[in-house]
Amino acid sequence: MVKSRKSGDQLIVYLSGEIDHCSADRMRGEIETLLEDARIRRLVLNFENVGFMDSSGVGMIIGRYKTMRERGGTVIACGLKPPTEKLFRMAGLHRIIAQEDAGRQE
How far, CA to CA in Å, does 17 sit from each of 29, 47, 49, 52, 87? Predict the structure, then answer.
């Protein structure tokens, strides 16, 4: 289960553990359920507690980006650790998803 916090039109999702083929589908479903609230215009994905992410995680992020883009919203990533940030950049996610400091989201 992902932890989350809503504040106005912002949803912060606190991801944790490994984001791989075993967990990405579950996370995707949980986040999509949270995004059923059409008032959400800013999705913040907090990666502070993510130790590993593979291409399944990249796919999960791209899908949430598309969901938010369709409603005129944005996706922000924060708390990326070096290995996750490297994959984030290699996949080109940094071109479509802004990165911010985790402290700014609280």
Answer: 16, 9, 6, 7, 16
Model pLDDT for residues 16-36, shown as the tens digit of each residue? 999 999 999 999 999 999 999
Q: pTM for this structure?
A: 0.92
User: What value does the mean pLDDT take over residues 58-66?
Assistant: 97
Nearest to 39 by CA among 6, 62, 66: 6
* pLDDT for the residue numbered 17: 94
Residue 93, CA distances (Å) to 36, 72, 87, 100 in order = 23, 18, 9, 14
Extract the tokens encoding 70: 């369709």
CA-CA distances (angstroms) from residue 100 to 8, 20, 44, 89, 97? Answer: 19, 23, 9, 14, 10
Fold classified for 3-105: Transcription Regulator spoIIAA (3.30.750)
Q: What's the token pair of residue 8?
A: 């106005």
